[in-house]
Amino acid sequence: MKLSELDGIVFDMDGVIFDSEVIGLESWERLGKKYGLTNVHENAMKCIGRSTVDTMAILEAAYGDKVSIPELYDEAKAICADIIAERGLPLKSGARELLSYLKERDIKVGLASSTSYKGVIKNLKGAGLLDYFHVIIGGDMIKHSKPQPEIYLLACKKLGVKPEKTVAVEDSYNGIKAAYNAKMIPIMVPDLIAPTDEILSMVYKIIDSLDAVLEYFKA
Fold first, then answer.
1. Would you state the pLDDT for residue 26?
2. Alpha-carbon dihedral angle through residues 205, 21, 102, 96, given to the nearest 10 degrees
3. Which of 12, 104, 193, 211 has the fewest CB atoms lying closer than 10 Å?
4. Which domains, from first to last, does the chain contain?
5. What's the confidence (pLDDT) of residue 1?
6. Strands 8-11 and 166-170
7. Please, which residues have CB within 8 angstroms of residue 171's CB and are 6 or more apart in sequence?
8. Mutual orientation of helices 52-63 and 69-87 as an angle, nearest 10°?
9. Going by DSSP bridges, is the β-strand pair 135-137/166-170 parallel, antiparallel, or unpaired?
């Protein structure tokens, strides 16, 4: 597949552009120890690629009888903010280089993240990446989060591209399912989770890193 054959590319953010999923997991594991919550890692993994509303629902089902979920969620966000303030929010290897390459070739580039629009803008500005994206869709701009296709369909509509001629770069099961359901071309760059047989049946290609994605499009 060549760039010239595509209408555009839409990226997920957490776990794709930023190495942020591990920070979220660390915050939840800290809270699990603090409050004596069980199966925290497993439940946190279920939240990867999900909106705030969906995440709260997952946590409510798991721990709602033990703690206040809104307070727990706010505490998790505060821990994440502290970790980022201390260590910074690391970019995934190859992210800036890939985005620069796409910009040089006038490829339409979008971002579709389950994170709130305000949070997305803050992260992209902080990393100096905001100008690489023509369209940005946050999780609070849609009703139905990944794995539903709404966020990707909206991104494609605003980019002015056909979903079937647009690549979606994702790391999560829910993200791949959303792109597949939108009839896009899903490329998975695995982060914390390896693809299952179901996911393998949905993806166009598995590529190990954004560095490798860049080389793939250069070939």
1. 92
2. -130
3. 104
4. 3-19+90-218 (3.40.50.1000), 21-87 (1.10.150)
5. 87
6. parallel
7. 12, 15, 16, 21, 48, 49, 188, 189, 190, 191, 192, 193
8. 120
9. unpaired
Which strands, in side-by-side order, build the sheet including 8-11? 135-137, 108-112, 8-11, 166-170, 185-188, 205-206
108 membership: H or E segment, kind and range: strand 108-112
Model pLDDT, residue 28: 93
**Interval 16-25: pLDDT, tens:** 999 988 898 9
Q: Give one word for 28, left, alpha or beta, with left for phi > 0 and alpha for psi -120 to 50.
A: alpha
- Are 151 and 112 within 8 A, CB to CB? yes
**Nearest alpha carbon to residue 48 among 76, 22, 75:** 22
Q: What is the pLDDT of residue 48?
A: 80
pLDDT along the chain (219 residues), means of 10: 94 95 91 94 86 89 95 93 89 97 97 94 95 97 94 98 98 95 98 92 98 96
Give the number of other Cβ atoms within 10 Å of residue 91's Cβ. 17
Report which residue type is found at 76.
Answer: A
Phi, psi of 168 (to 5 degrees): -115, 125
